[in-house]
UniProtKB/TrEMBL annotation:
Any Pfam family: PDH_N
Name of the molecule in the record: prephenate dehydrogenase
GO BP: any one term: tyrosine biosynthetic process
Keyword NAD appears in the UniProt entry: yes
Amino acid sequence: MTQPVYDRIALIGLGLIASSMAHAIRRGNLAGEITGYARSEATRETARRINLCDRICDTAADAVEDADLVVLCVPVGAMGPVMEEIAPKLKPGATVSDVGSVKRHVIEAVQPHIPQGVHFVPAHPLAGTEHSGPEAGFAELYDNRWCLLVPVEGTDSDAVERLRTLWEGMGANVDEMDADHHDLVLAVTSHAPHLIAYTMVGVADDLRRVTDSEVIKYSAAGFRDFTRIAASDPTMWRDVFLTNKDATLEILGRFTEELFALQRAIRTGDGEHLHDYFTRTRAIRRGIIEAGQDTAAPNFGRGTKS
Ligand SMILES: NC(=O)c1ccc[n+]([C@@H]2O[C@H](COP(=O)([O-])OP(=O)(O)OC[C@H]3O[C@@H](n4cnc5c(N)ncnc54)[C@H](O)[C@@H]3O)[C@@H](O)[C@H]2O)c1
Ligand SMILES: O=C(O)C(=O)C[C@]1(C(=O)O)C=C[C@@H](O)C=C1
């Protein structure tokens, strides 16, 4: 049996990401003990019922006491206040990490509350589903997916390496990235696509009133994929857009320009433009598959809806 990476890990916020971590940590025997805390009594009760952690605490302070690693698994907008609340209870030498989808904002909100002698290593697992809550998690979520570590300058390298070992133990491939670069890359690969999916499903919903239920009844695969993405947690995504404003607006600006160009090509019958464009985008998809990076979650439909 391998040695645990940390004696005690505290998970704060018990949704999809934390519950998947709890399952993966247990699968790999990566912690001596897992404690958990969720804001709502109902979530804590569910977590106890399904035996998600070794101990579910009624306060965040109790959960983090004596923890060697504390992982903030709450929506990005709640990271700062939660960190402020737990700061006085942290053990000297402990590491605080998070799983937020936006990194610059989390660093700015959390770092000022990190006590002297406590390490802070922000992280972001690039894996998820449209489901939320403590019952949505599963041990395989991080298998062969990326987890990006975003340490600020001067962070203790042992603390970073230990967190890397944990994520690798949970099945992830780990890389390091600067926070601003992370936020721009994720605006392209995750944040803008989610906004586009939300918009497309919203448009279809407006249309549904015109065409009765045909949009749902005859929805093709492409639209169904959009509806899966657009079923993602509203609080999480509100916070993502409010906290990664500049990068998302930059990418949406470029998106709008391209959309206008395609719109003009359709209006003017410029088939060559359309064909060239679609040929270029098809090559991107093929490149991803050839590079062996088509790690689309094999887990759609798992867990409970939020
Ligand atoms: N879902 C994904 O696809 C995904 C992927 C990677 C990273 N993330 C990030 O992980 C974090 C958690 O996401 P999730 O999908 O597990 O969400 P979730 O909705 O399943 O769980 C969120 C948890 O945070 C708690 N919470 C909400 N607001 C809070 C507040 N103000 N104070 C304290 N607790 C609060 C909720 O009760 C719940 O226990 C978010 O920061 C998100 O950006 C999500
Ligand atoms: O597969 C999904 O449901 C996701 O949207 C997961 C996804 C993504 O965009 O890839 C969503 C947000 C994250 O911060 C990381 C992963």
